[in-house]
Amino acid sequence: ALSRLAHHGKHRDSSFWQAAAKILIPRVGEMSGDVVGLAANAFSRVGVTVPDLMREISARVVADVSDMPATALTLVLNSVVHRGSSGRSDQLEGSIARHLVGRLHELNDQDAALFFTALGRDGRVDEGPAAEAALDLE
Predict the structure, then answer these.
(1) Contacts by 121-129 with C-beta closer than 8 Å and gap 24+?
(2) Is 47 helix (H, G, I), strand (E, B) or coil?
(3) Residue 46 has what pLDDT?
């Protein structure tokens, strides 16, 4: 439901999203990988950053990266890239990107476009952690 609200531009009020995050944070560990990806994408889409929620999502992704659907990983990667960079998000970006490179065959066209968009900006490959990991630019 949050994903649909974000997609349609409903409830842009930050207090709504903060309240939703408080409900989600203790439940991230119980969510399926698809739901984790949709939740990360919804918050990114409305431009609301909730550090505690992203920490929980990051921990979940790192713990279960090989068991998470590739589509969910692209959504989380995209939300982390758009959120801005910090040491922890750089590690998460790199971890997801390295993992997804081996699973590109699982991505549909839309997911692949989202993955490659997260790697670069303005048609150029960004030299950030996701691009370095995916393209082995180190």
Answers:
(1) 128/81, 128/85, 128/90, 128/93, 129/85, 129/90, 129/91, 129/93, 129/94, 129/97
(2) coil
(3) 87
